[in-house]
């Protein structure tokens, strides 16, 4: 039987991605948040879920936006997960979002769930750090949309940060080749270096658009954000860069 180590399932609006192609910002989604991550971004807002061994239960919304949850023990059964997703289907669901933690760490279970959701008529949106291109390859042909983070040096996500960025680019290449609508997301901080932004933009040129997302809570200055944007646009082209904010946090929804 297929098992998944999950954190939560809920129904909301996609709050990130801005207006770039590949973004599903503002669309209704059912979010499936996987537990466990192999990176340690210093500003991660899902920190309580990145050590999977500490996530004994997953929770699911009883009804959308009620704030009422029920809890089940991990690992979850695929059948229960599908039942919960279908119960949360409000009839206006654009796509199912797989996030985390890092969903691609449980690639076999993720692939089974994504395949099942396609069979049930849903589109798949993958939110990933992209650091595992070999895993990405296994789900590329059942993914409709993907947001792949490029981890900035200031995130201090991993020891070999440059290698991580190159793997993220490789994941984007694999997704694009499979026909996925993919964009890259860069979370920027007041420590983000312009020379690094130039490097990411060179790597992404001709490959995917870039959403620049200020780290929350926002402390980067507007002047700095403008500099980062301009440097990226000079290399990627004016139409291939945009801002993204975590709008769900302003709405106070999940
Ligand atoms: C929690 S991560 C899970 C998916 C995957 N592990 C990743 O990092 O892409 C979901 C998204 O939230 C973003 N994020 C997490 N914490 C953030 C923060 N404090 N400010 C802005 N974006 C944040 C991540 O960069 C990522 O794009
Ligand atoms: N509404 C909403 N939009 C989101 N976009 C990315 C999210 C994530 O944590 O992956 C997220 C999330 O947790 N909630
Ligand atoms: S990769 Fe994603 S889940 Fe993992 S620590 Fe970074 S932001 Fe959090
Ligand atoms: Mg989030």
Automatic annotation (TrEMBL):
<keyword id="KW-0460">Magnesium</keyword>
<dbReference type="InterPro" id="IPR024924">
    <property type="entry name" value="7-CO-7-deazaguanine_synth-like"/>
</dbReference>
<feature type="binding site">
    <location>
        <position position="33"/>
    </location>
    <ligand>
        <name>substrate</name>
    </ligand>
</feature>
<dbReference type="InterPro" id="IPR013785">
    <property type="entry name" value="Aldolase_TIM"/>
</dbReference>
<keyword id="KW-0004">4Fe-4S</keyword>
<keyword id="KW-0411">Iron-sulfur</keyword>
<dbReference type="GO" id="GO:0016840">
    <property type="term" value="F:carbon-nitrogen lyase activity"/>
</dbReference>
<feature type="binding site">
    <location>
        <position position="37"/>
    </location>
    <ligand>
        <name>[4Fe-4S] cluster</name>
    </ligand>
</feature>
<feature type="binding site">
    <location>
        <begin position="43"/>
        <end position="45"/>
    </location>
    <ligand>
        <name>S-adenosyl-L-methionine</name>
    </ligand>
</feature>
<dbReference type="GO" id="GO:0051539">
    <property type="term" value="F:4 iron, 4 sulfur cluster binding"/>
</dbReference>
<protein>
    <recommendedName>
        <fullName>7-carboxy-7-deazaguanine synthase</fullName>
        <ecNumber>4.3.99.3</ecNumber>
    </recommendedName>
</protein>
<feature type="binding site">
    <location>
        <begin position="13"/>
        <end position="15"/>
    </location>
    <ligand>
        <name>substrate</name>
    </ligand>
</feature>
<comment type="pathway">
    <text>Purine metabolism; 7-cyano-7-deazaguanine biosynthesis.</text>
</comment>
<keyword id="KW-0408">Iron</keyword>
<feature type="binding site">
    <location>
        <position position="41"/>
    </location>
    <ligand>
        <name>[4Fe-4S] cluster</name>
    </ligand>
</feature>
<feature type="binding site">
    <location>
        <position position="101"/>
    </location>
    <ligand>
        <name>S-adenosyl-L-methionine</name>
    </ligand>
</feature>
<comment type="subunit">
    <text>Homodimer.</text>
</comment>
<dbReference type="InterPro" id="IPR058240">
    <property type="entry name" value="rSAM_sf"/>
</dbReference>
<comment type="function">
    <text>Catalyzes the complex heterocyclic radical-mediated conversion of 6-carboxy-5,6,7,8-tetrahydropterin (CPH4) to 7-carboxy-7-deazaguanine (CDG), a step common to the biosynthetic pathways of all 7-deazapurine-containing compounds.</text>
</comment>
<keyword id="KW-0479">Metal-binding</keyword>
<dbReference type="GO" id="GO:0000287">
    <property type="term" value="F:magnesium ion binding"/>
</dbReference>
<comment type="similarity">
    <text>Belongs to the radical SAM superfamily. 7-carboxy-7-deazaguanine synthase family.</text>
</comment>
<dbReference type="InterPro" id="IPR007197">
    <property type="entry name" value="rSAM"/>
</dbReference>
<dbReference type="Pfam" id="PF04055">
    <property type="entry name" value="Radical_SAM"/>
</dbReference>
<feature type="domain" description="Radical SAM core">
    <location>
        <begin position="24"/>
        <end position="254"/>
    </location>
</feature>
<feature type="binding site">
    <location>
        <position position="46"/>
    </location>
    <ligand>
        <name>Mg(2+)</name>
    </ligand>
</feature>
<keyword id="KW-0949">S-adenosyl-L-methionine</keyword>
<feature type="binding site">
    <location>
        <position position="44"/>
    </location>
    <ligand>
        <name>[4Fe-4S] cluster</name>
    </ligand>
</feature>
<keyword id="KW-0456">Lyase</keyword>
<dbReference type="GO" id="GO:1904047">
    <property type="term" value="F:S-adenosyl-L-methionine binding"/>
</dbReference>
<feature type="binding site">
    <location>
        <position position="99"/>
    </location>
    <ligand>
        <name>substrate</name>
    </ligand>
</feature>
